[in-house]
Every structure is written in C-alpha cells, then in structure tokens.
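Let's see one such:

===
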Amino acid sequence: MTAARKLRVDIDETDPSAWASSLQDAMSETVIEAMTLGSSAGGAETVRKWLAHANLPDGADRLQVLFAAASALALELSIYTPSLSGVRPVDRLARQSGKMTGDRALAPELLRKAKFTLFRIEAPEGDATHRAQDLATGASFLLFGERFPLDAFHLDLGARICAIGEGLHVLVGPIIPLGPAGFADVKDFIRPGKGLINDQRCAALVYRDYVRGGADEGLSFGLEPPDEPIALSLPDEELDGFALDWLEMDEGPTPTGEALAEARSLASGARICAALSSCIELRGADWNKLADVYQSLAAIQMETMHRRGRIGSGETRPLETLRALLVEQTAKRRFASEALALFDDLARPLLGEAANRPDRDTDVNRVVERIRALRAKTTAQGCTEQEALLAAEKVAEMLERYGLSLSEIEFRKQACEGFNLDTGRRKREPSDRCVPAVAEFCDCRVWSETSPAGFIRYVFFGLPADVEAAHYLYDLVVVAFGTETAAFKQGDLLGAVATAERRGAVASFQIGLATGICDKLAKLKEDRQAAMFRSSGRDLVPVKASILDEEIGKLGLSFHTRRIARRRKVVAAAYEEGHIAGGNFEVRAGIA
C-alpha cells in the first residue's frame, strides 16, 4: 500500500474494499479528463482504420453503438500513447494534480502505472474481490469488483488494470473479450519470464479486433453492476428485481421490515419454483450472496403459502401440492433435483410445525367446542327461528364472559385461526351482503376469493373463539334466510304480485332482509362495546385489531375493495317486509 499511503493517510489497510470503490470512481473521472488531453485527430484516424475493415452490423442503432464503442476505445488508447516529446496525456495530468487531495490526487499517480493485462477471472474471493490469473505470467492476483457478469468468468479477457497495493488491482478501462482465436491472437506479445511486452500495442490489437468483429454491445468498464448476473432458467421480473435490489442494499440475506412484507406479497407456487431454481443455479456459479437471497425468498414464500393454507385461503395443502408438481417436473428433467432437495429442506420444519402445533388454551378450547356443539344442533336438520335465537343467546353470554376474563397479554398469546366457506356458487346472492357485518360483529376479518373449483369462497380470520362465533353466526344467517324466504313465499304479499314479477319480489325481500340483519348487527355491536367498557373499563376491539393486522401481514395478501352494483330494481313492499324480518333477527349482545 506504499503508493496509496503516501497520498491517503486515512486508508484502512485491513479493508481494501472500503476505499477501493471510491478510488476507482476517482480514476474513472481522471480517465475522462485525460481523454480531453489526447489527440482527437489521432483518435479519429484510428477509428477510421478500424471501421474500414469492420464487419458492420445491420441497422442504424447497432451501427451507432459500434461507432461509439470504437470512439471510446480509440480515446482510451490515446491517453496512454506518447506524443512526439514522449509524454503521455496521463503523465501530463499527473503533473497537474499537485493541488488536489485525497482520491483525486492519488488517482492520476496510480493511472500512470496502469498496464493493459490479459487475464481470466476465476472465482469470487470475498465480498468485493475476485481471484484472477494473469495469462502472460501465470500469476494470480486479486481484482476488485462488486459484481462481474457471469459470462466474464473463465474467459480470456483484456483490460487496463491498475495495482493499488498488497496484490489488489482495479479496472481502469473496458473489459474486452479476446477474439475467436482467443489467447492465440496475442501470443506474439508474450515472452517467457517477462510476461506481456508492449502492452500498448497489445491493447490496440485487442481493441481493433473487437471493433472489426462488429461488436454491437456497450462496453463494460467493470464499474456498474449488471442488471442480471446470470441468465436464469426460470426468470421472474418482480422476483429477480427484488432479489437484486436487496443484494445491493447489502443488509444480509433475509429481508426485514417493509421488504419482508413485499417478499411475502410475491408468494405463489410459480415464484417458489423460480426462487429455488435460481438459488441452485447461482450457487453453482459461485454467486453465493445472491443465492442466499433467493433461498431466503423461497423460505419466506413457502412459509407464507403454508400460513394461508392453514387458515383455508388458497390451496388447503399448498406445500404438498407444490411438491407433487416438482417431483413430476424433476422426473421429466424440467426441474433440478438439487432444487427439489432444497424445497424438502425448507418445507420440513413447516410441516413439522403443523404436526407439533401446541394445543390451544383449555378455556379457548372449551368455548370453541361448546359453540361447535350448538352449531351442529342448530343446523343439523334445520331449525326454527326461535331455536336459532335461543342458541345464539347462549353463545353470546358465553363469549362475553370469556372475553371479559382475559387480559391483553392473554389475548396476544392466542394464535389467529381461519376457516373458509365455499358457497358452491359462482354468483353472489343477497345473503352475501351479511358476510362483512358478521365479520365486523365478531371482531374478525373476512375476504372473498375464488376456490379452485371456481366457486365464491369466504375466508374468516381472527382469534379462535371469534372465528368459531363468526362461523356459527353465518350459519344462523343462512338458516334465517331459508326460513324467512320460505315464509315470504307463502305470504299474502307475494300472492298479490303478478307471476312475472315474483322472482323480483323474492329478491327484493332478501335484499331487505340482508339490510335489516346488517343494521341489527351493527346496532348490537355498538351496544355490546359500550356495555363491555362500562363493566370492565377497557375496549378489546383495538387490541384485537392490532393482533389481526400483524398476523394478516404474515399472509402477504393484497386486498382490493370491490364495489357491488346497486342498480337493481326493487319491489318496495317486498323490500320493506324483508327489512322488518331482518330487524327481528335477534342475536343477543355477546358473540365475540
């Protein structure tokens, strides 16, 4: 580090990557400045000679890229070409840097010693260094670079390289792959025991062959990380973009905070497959840090899918279903066996967790089982409205006593649960309007989704007793709709309606019934909250809401509010009768 230490007293010799990056940036700026001191006429003549025998590409855009590459290479060559007085532009710039400080002072001095080198990048050595081999001498050296394209590994390359001390080198010019003949093209510039002689003429030959080959890609100066380090076999734009962004943030392999929530939102079977496959491919190419990110993404997505399956959202057994697909694809050689093995490693603790899940609290179990027994009794063979309301009163009293007996800590110890209700229908009916009111009344969250069979499915999510109460209340609503609709059809009002309008009258009655039930539940919820606060001095709703928000975040679901069309012609009398019937749906305060 002698040269660097002379001009930079703040260098940390134990961590070259901490200052090599800023020094490399300063060198890049110095190279551009030196180009203004080179011979523009000489550069233009060099470009003309190169292009005169070039394999010119088709299309104006590609031709423009080639011309730009040729001009950049000619200018880079010119700053290391001596004038008639024997002084190179880079030497002149170094003489003018006396008033500069820090990296800007050190950069010109080091650039004077830069050499065009033939080399091969062999493997990553550390976080920002790679092991490389000098093809002319056979010696190994460390090359600084945060990331190199994977297609640059194990190829014969040429570039201007500057030693900055202790065996560490940085790139100060474009990386150029050698021609089709590879190393044979430049062997005349190599002398046994001496290495590369006349590196400037060697650079001119490599640049010329690159241009004459009709290269139609931009030049890589080794300073900017590529958008994608490898051509992945299962690319996914959102997943790959997230992985690269997280890697560049350099905050470890596992996303946290908002990034974790975003990673969960990406969860799907296809993306789990992509993450597993990409992890194996990147690890095989020694991109271990990025491979670790993909492995974390696969684990997060698998956990998220597993959580969804446990509450009845999406596939019931998503990991088992996905594994069966992966086994099939592996047998057809469409999926790597190593990726399947990684899936099994990540799935094992999740499936074991399901098997060894601790039992719920005894009091919670007692409440849940009693509600289930009541639901079975109420809905087994159908029930009268009076029987349904008596059962609901018992559940209400039970849950109110249970809720008042718990502290906030005991609430937070409970694991949220869910259940799904497959309606067996593809179209919504008036009774569906009661679903949000049921969830709100029971302090639950609810959303709708399409089941694998294409039917409407509702998923209720909340604390165990609340979810069971919502299940029970939903069943009561369904029973009430059946009972009250049957009674309406036998009533005088429908009999007085013209036959052609009876279907509309029944629908109007059901809409009124749903509205009446929703209004009644909202009023009861308000009264119940006020009564609980008066008796206990605390409001449990915000506590439950914070628990649900946290647990729903772990599901990685994105919810969208759907506006339900209201442009339905309603028979006023039938609607009013339904609304009155809904208002008579008496659920005593206390469910949830």
Observations:
- Residues 237-355 form one domain.
- The chain has a mean pLDDT of 77.
- The two ends are 71 Å apart (CA to CA).
- The longest helix spans residues 502-536.
